[in-house]
Amino acid sequence: MANYDLSKLDSPALSSTPQLRTLPPPDPRRHLPPFIPIPKIHNFRSLQPFPTSPSGHFRTDLIYRCAEPSPITPQGHAAISKLPIKSVFDLRSADELAKNATRAPAVQIPGTTRYHVPVFGEAVDEASREQHLRFYTESGSGGFVKAYQEILGHGVGAFRRIFEHVRDRPEDGVLVHCTAGKDRTGVFVALALNLVGVDDELIGEEYQLTEAGLSEWAPIIFKVLLQEPALGGDQDGVIRLGSAKKENMMAFLEWMRKKYGGAGGYLKGECSFGDEDIEKIKENLVEKA
Asked: H/E element holding 249?
């Protein structure tokens, strides 16, 4: 999700925080493909073989996404070892990692190399962090679009590093994560899918799967968010913040298309990739028909 502090997950005070008044039960889809059962890690999934333009489909063995992998178990290590993942890209900020050093430390998954590529690479002042959180609580899609604009702006260096990897090492699968694997991770995945012409509706539906992927963890995360001073105990706002509605992603994609002409324009204009680089990245993301 956004750059917020989950270090309070282990706080004794959390037990006295009231639960949200309306929460659906855990979504059974979290046990079905494209989700991959990795013990203790939420929202772990591969990307689906979406049709790409002008032909072919998106590779299913290259990009994986998840929530923070810190709770991984030996069984989880064994499960990931069966996947083609060789590199792990952690989008969390240094401040997040410091605050959560005990609860959710950075972990090295055997057989992989971890890269810390924070979206918010520079220290974000508290007022800016709180405003970013409040964007997600706004009614309609406008707040999410503003939040994802900020992720796109701050994340140039992080996203460039991952796309360089896709360009140079197409046989090495990558695992991309932030805290919940929703917002920063979701923006990266949207860039990759949009770059090769996957339909906006399909990108939105892939993004919305995160609601199922987090449904078991959501009640405890929401209790933490209710303690966020910036959110003022706004239950409806917290529910909106924790959501992953396809219409919000589709609204962001429309904004990106108007601003950059799509992901290719962003990679060229902001990430300084040349035309040949972008074509190579696209080629490596697609399985030819």
From this structure: helix 246-260
Q: Is the pLDDT of residue 201 over 70?
A: yes
CA distance linking residue 289 with residue 272, whole number of Å: 30
pTM of the predicted structure, to 2 decimals: 0.94
**pLDDT score, position 101:** 84
Token representation of residue 111: 């057989």
Say if strands 173-177 and 85-90 run parallel, antiparallel, or are unpaired: parallel
Q: Are 210 and 29 in contact (CB under 8 A)?
A: no
Separation between Cα atoms, residue 37 and residue 80, nearest integer Å: 10
CA 2/CA 209 separation, integer angstroms: 17
What is the C-alpha end-to-end distance of the chain, expressed in Å? 35
The yes-or-no verdict on residue 16 having pLDDT over 60 is no
Residue position matching structure tokens 């490596």 = 284
What's the pLDDT at 223? 87
Provide long-range contacts, Cβ within 8 A and 24+ apart, for 142-146.
Answer: 142/251, 143/240, 144/248, 144/249, 144/251, 144/252, 145/248, 145/251, 145/252, 145/255
